[in-house]
Amino acid sequence: MTRQQARSGSPHEDSTGFSRGVRAGSTVAIAGTAPVWPDGTVDPDPAVQARRCWEIVLGALAELGGAPEHAIRTRQYVTDAAYADAVSAVHREVFGEIRPASTMVVVAGLLDPRWKVEMELDAILPEDAG
């Protein structure tokens, strides 16, 4: 089975020793992804943060040969239940007709206190993808 890795440029990839995404055969796992812009800034709005997370996640998925319709599971971590509606609306924008299995969990905090959300994704690609 072949194994591919995707990187997003996060400094944590090297310091922690992880990949943004890994493809093993037709299975793809995208790691917990935070809402950080290339210049290190983080928008305070939870919906903007969710969109940024999904942008990074889907970029890694594409790098590994996948597309949004290959998603089978998403996980959304939020630091306040009050963000649920805004974050859910963004999930619906991205995955509305795809409808992967999804979980949203309220957590006490994330690695950076500016982060209000973090996202993960699992996908299964067709045999001929990428």
Automatic annotation (TrEMBL):
SUPFAM superfamilies the UniProt entry points to: YjgF-like (SSF55298)
Lineage: Bacteria, Bacillati, Actinomycetota, Actinomycetes, Propionibacteriales
InterPro entries attached to this UniProt entry: RutC-like_sf (IPR035959), YjgF/YER057c/UK114 (IPR006175)
Annotated region described as Disordered, given as residue ranges: 1-22
Coiled-coil ranges per UniProt: none
PANTHER family (alphabetical): BLR7761 PROTEIN, YJGH FAMILY PROTEIN
Chain ranges passing through the membrane: none
Origin superkingdom: Bacteria
Name this polypeptide is given: RidA family protein
